Structures are given as structure tokens and as C-alpha cells.
């Protein structure tokens, strides 16, 4: 499965419009980095991808199992360590309005790790760049 997004940045520091199909979102840098904080910064977008994919993957599984779960909350903290070339994602998942037992929670942990974005982030990644 391939997806294509297009980011366009004009002269307004660092206000960027990102388009994917019919959807648009805004990214920016915080004020202390020279931006205007009008949107998510790139690291927040990366963490958002993991959080939203995890929640959707869990919801699909929960619905298939017909478990009663009112709400799924996924909080992701991303710490980047450029000097060691290491990044750490800390993911905290909670469920509201449910009585999941230990066996169900153990299964949901496995399902969370099977989310497509989690798989991408834990696999070998290659970035091919060209200028046109």
C-alpha cells in the first residue's frame, strides 16, 4: 500500500500545508524555533501517526470481538536523541467504560503492536530522495 502526501512551504516561516488526497493539514514549528505554532510540528505528526493507528487497530479488533469498550485513549511521547541516533516512543493505552480482564488486555497489547505504523517504525526503513 502506497500513500502520497505533498508538503508546500512558502515564505511564511515554517507554515506548511500538507495535502493527502482530499485532506489538508497544517504543520508549523513552535515559536521558540522560529515558527508561529499554527499546527503540529513534524515530531508531533510522527507521534500522532502511531497513536491514531494504534487506536484504530484496537477499535477494529474490539468490534470484531464484540467487546464493550466505550473509549480507547492512546498517548504517545516521542523522545529524539540525535547524538545517539535513537528515538524512543512511549505509548500509554487506556480504556474507558469497560471491564477488560488480564487475558483480554494481554491480547490487546499484541494487537497494538500489530498496528501498521508500529510495524513500519520497528522495521528497516529506507528513504529514497530525488530532486526534480
Automatic annotation (TrEMBL):
Superkingdom is Bacteria
Q: What is this protein called?
A: OsmC family protein
Looking up InterPro entries in the UniProt record yields: KH_dom-like_a/b, OsmC/Ohr_fam, OsmC/Ohrsf
Q: What species is this protein from?
A: Chryseobacterium tagetis
One Pfam family here: OsmC
Amino acid at each position: 500500500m502506497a500513500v502520497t502526501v505533498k508538503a508546500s512551504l512558502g515564505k511564511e516561516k515554517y507554515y506548511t500545508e500538507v495535502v493527502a488526497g482530499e485532506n489538508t493539514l497544517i504543520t508549523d514549528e513552535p515559536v521558540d524555533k522560529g515558527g508561529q505554532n499554527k499546527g503540529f510540528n513534524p515530531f508531533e505528526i510522527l507521534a500522532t501517526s502511531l497513536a491514531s493507528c494504534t487506536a484504530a487497530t484496537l477499535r477494529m479488533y474490539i468490534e470484531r470481538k464484540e467487546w464493550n469498550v466505550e473509549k480507547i485513549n492512546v498517548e504517545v511521547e516521542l523522545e529524539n536523541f540525535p547524538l545517539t541516533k535513537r528515538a524512543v516512543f512511549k505509548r500509554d493505552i487506556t480504556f474507558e467504560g469497560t471491564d477488560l480482564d488480564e487475558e483480554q488486555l494481554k491480547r490487546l497489547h499484541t494487537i497494538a503492536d500489530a498496528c501498521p505504523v508500529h510495524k513500519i517504525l520497528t522495521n528497516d526503513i529506507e528513504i529514497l530522495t530525488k530532486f526534480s
